[in-house]
Amino acid sequence: xxxxACPNCGQQLAFENxxxxxxxxxxxxxxxxxALVVIGDPRGADSVDQMAGVxxxxxxxxxxxxxxxxxxxxxxxxxxxxxxxxxxxxAEQRKRLLCASCRLTRTRPNDLDAAxxxxxxxxxxxxxxxxxxxxxxGLPIVxxxxxxxxxxxxxxxxxxxxxxxxGHKNGVITLDLAEANDPHREQLRIEMDEPYRTxxxxxxxxxxxxxxxILVADTEAQRRFRELFGDPSADYQAAIDRHYAEGAPSxxxxxxxxxxxxxxxxxxxxxxxAHYLHIRDTLDTAAAFGxxxxxxSLDRPQVGRAGFDKIIDLWLxxxxxxxxxxxxxxHPDLYPFVLPDRVLEKMRLTHELCxxxxxx
Length: 360
What we know:
The chain has about 350 residues and is an alpha/beta fold. The chain has 10 helices and 11 strands. It starts with a strand and ends with a helix.
């Protein structure tokens, strides 16, 4: 994640800001520019200049999920539409007033579910970080309305009344919003003996399943995938039963990034993909704040076989230093994982497939 600043006054800002903390300029995140921009120039309409980080308030507004999900992303007002007032919009018009990230969510808690809506806001905040990173990496994002069979969609559901299973199926990612509850998530993390469990981590894992369909399935990459990860068509239910009955095999640490990755080749890929996103985003953030060597930022993409080696050369000392900082504060390691050679080769394939998709 980059460092952000107000285009009007230069005040340092966070990704989530919708108003400048210094000059009070209204702000929106532009996915096209991967930047916070001012909505309407405070010096007058004649000075609107998108190249200077200012957009026309008559053409752009904040996402309709500003209040329900604290969404600060920019939306272009539909042709002939208005930012407010007029007749009540129909479903299609309402959808056009949602940002590129919020439009991907097709189910959320109802307006009477206060606890569910609070968790929904947390989940959407994590999802926006995911979508911004995928966009910066140049990965394709095809929405469900563009591809009804394999397009991407999110079901953000509260398990307060019904059982919800976090997972992925044919482009639809389901998340149990109970994961936004810290005590619940921490209890599950301990019960499942996981060193790391976060909302953003869930999204990165599940989106890995989606990108298996896009980057690997029915492509020439299948052969290399099978060599590194195994047979993706192996019986999944049998793998689940075996994993929860027997646990991870002895010595798994030399071949897998996590014990969960040992369950099935599909989970191994999703875990590896998630860790690739962890590494790329953290390197980018560290570079933005001057705590990583030059070249770590996504502004200077690392390509080819040597490019991946460079990413890992940058990551390993940074992860070590961040872990030591956390220990100095009395916290567990920020990145409590080891990356053996076999895992690095799996991650190298992930990197090459992502780079190839971005190039296309």
